[in-house]
Recover the amino acids of this structure.
């Protein structure tokens, strides 16, 4: 598992995906700090890593799956148990807010280069 603060190449993400699940890599994005954790077995592990090492807060961390070999329109899947946050008005495994989805996409685009 790694914490990404500086841009990395998409090929590196592909390598992480191949090592873990084949075609996808799990990620947790902190939309407040603009960082993410990649390569954990569970989104919950990545969220703990961000919380303990980077001071991330639960309301700003969102779990996604990245499919690095798909094109940019299809490569992010907003699906994780950590996204169930009724107190923050997110009542599903997805990310219900379009605004938060867009923030996540912007951070992923900034941190994963073609």
């Amino acid at each position: 598992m790694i914490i990404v603060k500086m841009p990395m190449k998409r090929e590196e993400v592909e390598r992480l995906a191949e090592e873990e699940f084949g075609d996808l890599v799990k990620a947790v994005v902190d939309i407040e700090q603009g960082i993410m954790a990649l390569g954990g077995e569970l989104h919950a592990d990545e969220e703990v890593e961000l919380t303990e090492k980077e001071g991330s807060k639960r309301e700003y961390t969102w779990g996604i799956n990245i499919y690095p070999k798909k094109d940019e329109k299809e490569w992010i899947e907003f699906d994780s148990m950590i996204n169930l946050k009724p107190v923050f008005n997110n009542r599903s495994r997805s990310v219900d807010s379009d605004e938060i989805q867009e923030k996540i996409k912007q951070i992923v685009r900034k941190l994963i280069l073609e």
The longest strand covers residues 25-30. The chain has a mean pLDDT of 97.
